[in-house]
Amino acid sequence: MQRNGGQRGRNTPIIFVLGGGIASGAAILALLFSILRTVAPGDDAVAAMLAPRIVDIAILTGVLVLLVTGMCLHALRPATGSGGHVRRLFRQADRAAAPTQPARGIGDDDVTDAARAGRQQLDAEIRCGLINGEFDVAYQPICHATTHEVEAVEALVRWPRRPDGELGPDAFIGAADSSGIIHRLGLFVLQRACSDMADLEAVRLHVNISPVQFRHPEFEAQVQSILDETGFPAHRLELEITERHILENAERARAVIMSLAARGIGFALDDFGAGVSGIGHLQRFGLRRVKIDRALVATIGSDPQAGALLTGAISIAHALSLSVVAEGVETEDQEKLLRLVGCDLLQGYRFGRPAYFGDIAGRLGGAANDRQVAAQA
Length: 377
Known about the structure:
By secondary structure, the chain is α/β, with parallel strands linked by helices. Helix content is about 50%, strand content about 15%.
């Protein structure tokens, strides 16, 4: 059978890429190079065209893709200067796997391809960044509302050594979460933070936990392994999760919390006040603390309804014997109002911006020593 002057070969290689991610990028690359040799042996032009796209193809996830080189023979050849043939071929496989998707308008494919390519590139950069030591952890103080003593820090991931320039967390956390790499990134933060903070007694450590981590079947064992390796005391660790994440899988959440709490680890409910209607479900989870949603803090001085909601949220938390942290505190007026309505701890630029361990260790060490002296007096 002839098609565009090409003869389909009898030995047609096939690639199966299973949904949920690619187990081995190296295996995919090997198959891709095998196709190159089959389709156009010795053709440097084809290899040159595909080289920039190898990583994009290797990290495609979520669909079952079937490629037959009878299609590749046509799709892999350059035409009119376009370099999108490989991505279009994968897009056609996407559509075959999900034929009920609604029709899209002219030009939507290119927009979707560009967005997908951007996500894939960022995901690849994150994976390489973890391997190459490009990430770091910054710490923001959490202070006593009355004395301003540093009682804890929150560990926050940063990407300062990215080759193309630093990216803020808002630019990459979402991509890491959607691709699943957030689990490895979160374990990196926990490992580094526990290692940094191990010798600073009397200062607690707060670490955010993503839903991907929380659902991982080995999460509890991984946390315990990090504590064992770093020597960080379990009673000084608090893991922060959101109400939505708890209620999405309440039984799994309760099992994880109970398991880690039995080892001395505490849990704090993040963004408290954004979903107060579900607070009744949280009485059985054994939480230690809640963190007031920063959106409420930002409007406390200007919106009477926000002030009333904040007061009610704090009252509910105290009724459940939960300590209350307000985050996003930036001004003296906010500090005074939050202290007046009963917040126990305050966090925000008012008390210190996130800083790397080398820049904040002196302050934390002094706070820990002061508390030890006070406890011995």
